[in-house]
Write a structure and sequence with these properties.
3 helices, alpha+beta, globular, 141 residues, six-stranded mixed beta sheet, STM4215-like
């Protein structure tokens, strides 16, 4: 259906659209920005094996992507509450709900799903450590 660049861009756009009422909406990136202004969300290929060619008999591909949620600090309760809200299954600040609003990412893939959350607490980006978490996303084209 689509290439990796289009899927990553569509996933970032889907999150931004679904988070329209939150400060995060204008800070969702398909490519790492030169500078960060938390809260920020960045969609990138997962480390390790992130592309599986010919995943099914119909020669589709599978992508393993990560959505890095980067907040400034965990020193206050509001930062911790914000991160938990981003990780909720549903609700106005749920990134999962934003993604599941269109699991075909505007037709760029057949299906996507969040397989889990990792790195809760310290998340590294460009040599800096942020308070946040990593959503693991599986995409089938």
């Amino acid at each position: 259906m689509s290439d990796l660049d289009a899927v990553i861009t569509a996933l970032a756009a889907r999150i931004a659209t679904g988070m329209s009422g939150d400060a995060l909406a204008g800070r969702v990136f398909a490519y790492g920005p030169d500078s960060l202004n938390p809260p920020t969300c960045i969609v990138v290929p997962a480390s390790g094996e992130f592309l599986v060619y010919d995943d099914t008999m119909s020669a589709t591909s599978g992508y393993n992507l990560v959505v890095k949620i980067l907040l400034g600090s965990q020193d206050d309760r509001s930062g911790q509450a914000a991160l938990l809200g981003y990780l909720d299954r549903a609700g106005a600040t749920s990134i999962r709900a934003a993604i599941y609003g269109d699991q075909t990412l505007g037709g760029t893939c057949s299906f996507c799903r969040i397989t889990g959350v990792s790195d809760y607490n310290d998340v590294e980006w460009a040599g800096q450590v942020f308070y946040g978490a990593t959503l693991n996303v599986e995409v089938l084209t």
